[in-house]
Amino acid sequence: MTASTKTGAAEGTDAGTAAAPVPDVPALDVDALLDDQDIRIVVCCGSGGVGKTTTAAALGVRAAERGRKVVVLTIDPARRLAQSMGIDSLDNIPRRVPGIDGEGAGELHAMMLDMKRTFDEIVEAHADGDRARAILENPFYKSLSAGFAGTQEYMAMEKLGQLRARNEWDLIIVDTPPSRSALDFLDAPKRLGSFLDGKFIKLLMAPAKMGGRAGMKFLNVGMSMMTGTLGKLLGGQFLRDVQTFVAAMDTMFGGFRTRADATYKLLQAPGTAFLVVATPERDALREAAYFVERLAAEEMPLAGLVLNRVHGSGAARLSAERALAAAENLDDIGIVDQTAGKAGLRDPDGSAVTSPEDPESPLSPARSAQTEDPEHEPASEPEPEAEAVSVEQLTAGLLRLHAERMQVVAREQRTRDRFTALHPEVAVTEVAALPGDVHDLAGLRAIGDRLATGSAPAGAA
């Protein structure tokens, strides 16, 4: 894709007034990224609710149908990925997705991170049978593996490292966790690695060695860093659980730090590409800008920005102000409401002329019979019809809807321009907003087409 110059939306400008140009924005060539055999990992990141899961799935479908063997790792608890890919459920094992078409198509697999199961797999892989069983049944370990802050992000990194080490797929696409901040995914390895290093072991072993009230006082101070769930377990039984856990895990703590460092370096490698996903809203693009800066500081390779759910109009030349002015003019005309149905013929004096064939005519045989029969009940009066909406009223309503859409388009354009001014070097592709949710492979293919062509909506810059 070639770089193009984009022009700001012209909200509040009249015809003939040029909108202010914005800097050239390099276009993100998604197909070139997916076809590059040197790219082995694509990480989709961004704040919550911007479409990371859908983007990751659409990239996976497109890459597989272009010949690559792909696995998509999602950490999305809503399980939308499984539904859209026609799989009943996803778990910690990659499942092959049926329906990948096209000549020379590759394979697509998908999986959902099971945080606790991944932690269990680490224990089972690095401890003998008896020790592994003691760890897995330990109450302290169960609390740590299921609820410690940062565990989900860390286990996502662990699973990424496992998939890459298997060398079974030539492209891994990662949908990062729905964290409070997009930066948690990068911070998790260092944070949890530091938590589980030698200093942590010494902290936990100290109260056991000291014993008595002094030991418990020290334990209360030392464990203040831990979550509320673990804090509720303080007491003699908890102390014994900690001792058992530390004794069983003693030989494994160094491995956590080593693997965390290795995965972090994997993310910095040239074979990894980060895609920041955002919507054209202020908060989402502010988070995206912060993440772009963080990736640069950590020397991690950024491929570009996916701008999702972009709005546009096929009649963008009609500004919001002109549309509203036209609607007001139509309202001021004051068209008299017209009665629906056929207008009757009238005599010169204005009275209606009816035909004998008209059932309502006094000359009608049916009408005469009703009049002469005293027992005949007169026909009930028909209910009045709903007031018809005039063409002018309908047009005025459509003009107001168009004005609202153009105001949204202009606001999104200003937000994009602010991001571009801060990071003109970041390649961008835009995905037009869809009228509904994506729920099958056809929908994912449509998203993939938009990602690849950078299709902004009609009328957008």
UniProtKB/TrEMBL annotation:
PANTHER family: ANION TRANSPORTER ATPASE-RELATED (PTHR10803:SF26), ARSENICAL PUMP-DRIVING ATPASE ARSENITE-TRANSLOCATING ATPASE (PTHR10803)
Ranges of Low complexity composition bias in the record: 7-21
Protein name (Swiss-Prot/TrEMBL): ArsA-related P-loop ATPase
Pfam families for this protein: ArsA_ATPase
Signal peptide: none
UniProt domain ArsA/GET3 Anion-transporting ATPase-like: residue ranges: 40-310
Bias (Acidic residues) ranges: 372-386
InterPro entries: ArsA/GET3_ATPase-like (IPR025723), ATPase_ArsA/GET3 (IPR016300), P-loop_NTPase (IPR027417)
Chain residue ranges for the region called Disordered: 1-21, 340-388
Organism expressing this protein natively: Streptomyces sp. 900116325
